[in-house]
Design brief:
Layout (H helix, E strand, L loop, with lengths): L2 H11 L10 H12 L8 E8 L2 E8 L7 E5 L13 H11 L2 E5 L11 H15 L7 E6 L1 H15 L7 E5 L11 H4 L9 H12 L11 H4 L8 E6 L5 H13 L4 E6 L14 H17 L12
Parallel strand pairs: 3-4, 3-5, 5-6, 6-7, 7-8
Antiparallel strand pairs: 1-2, 2-4
Length: about 300
């Protein structure tokens, strides 16, 4: 266990921030600056593209991808973040799996509140299917709000009679807009990044007056997960959103869904971003990579015939 590494990251995240409520632009700029410090692995290439009606960042191994696609949804409370701020995560997943990843630039609140993000992620998935990609070779992955989108996009796909992807990987997902998990209180002060007040601030921008008591906003407590693909949920014990993952895992089990709940001690929200400086981040990403490679299936017809 990397006690010293964890202590340094915790202290870094607790550094004083500007007082008072920040504007949307200040929040976005601060997040960009923080994520720009993360380590992006070598051996990848990025290309600006589109997926459905939205921009996306295509992340590929520099020597070409193997068959299989990660559809990635970045974090940021539905208000901030971008494919670029998530590049330490997508880059590591691509470098370690050899799969390509499309990281989607979905619309953000408050300019585009709920359900705009889900409409965009569903359109992106539909575009992959329409391009001929087999659903068994597609996985959804995401962090924080994007981790929530891995689940709600599956709900939307099922409602649209689309096939499920092969698997879901969610890093510290936000899965309960009602904020009723016990960890919201038991981890208050222990979480170096979020407070109930900060989550309420950005959450109100996304909700825009909508009732959070609905499956597309609080799937951990309200969603019917029947027919869902296998899920890997990773979180840290030092985050107020911990119970979003624990309750989602219990709900998935009750629905007969294969689910792995992977909890790492004494690490913060989306600790996987600290790959390269935190041992637990690299180890968690290795477990996510194993899960992805176990569940992506590439159609036999796509392979080269034996000579």
């Amino acid at each position: 266990m990397s006690k010293e590494q964890r202590a340094i990251i915790d202290a870094t995240l607790r550094q004083p921030r500007p007082g008072g409520r920040q504007s949307v632009e200040e929040i976005r700029a601060g997040f960009r600056a923080m994520m720009a410090k993360m380590i992006i692995p070598g051996g990848i290439r990025t290309t600006a593209t589109t997926l459905g009606p939205r921009p996306a960042l295509l992340v590929e191994p520099a020597d070409g991808p193997r068959a299989g696609t990660i559809l990635y949804f970045h974090g940021g409370g539905y208000v901030f973040g971008s494919p670029e701020t998530a590049l330490s995560l997508t880059g590591n997943l691509v470098a370690k799996t050899g799969f390509r990843a499309f990281s989607l630039e979905y619309r953000l609140a408050p300019e585009h509140p709920f359900p705009a993000a889900i409409e965009d992620t569903l359109s992106a998935y539909r575009a992959l299917l329409d391009s001929g990609e087999d659903p068994s070779s597609i996985v959804f992955a995401g962090d924080s709000a994007g981790g929530g989108l891995t689940v709600t996009t599956c709900l939307a796909a099922r409602d649209a009679d689309l096939p499920m992807p092969a698997a879901i990987v969610a890093f510290s997902p936000g899965l309960d807009a009602t904020r009723t998990g016990e960890s919201m209180d038991t981890k208050a002060g222990i979480d170096p990044y979020f407070t109930r007040e900060s989550l309420d601030h950005t959450g109100a921008m996304y909700l825009a007056g909508q009732d959070p008591d609905q499956p597309m906003l609080s799937p951990a407590v309200l969603a019917d997960l029947t027919g869902f693909p296998p899920m890997l949920l990773q979180a840290g014990t030092n985050e107020v959103l911990l119970d979003d993952s624990t309750r989602m895992a219990a709900r998935a089990r009750a629905a007969g869904v294969d689910v792995v709940l992977d909890i790492t001690a004494d690490v913060p929200h989306v600790f996987q971003s600290f790959a390269g400086v935190l041992n637990e981040a690299d180890e968690a990403l290795d477990r996510a990579v194993l899960f992805l490679t176990q569940h992506i299936r590439t159609p036999v017809a796509a392979s080269t015939p034996a000579g």
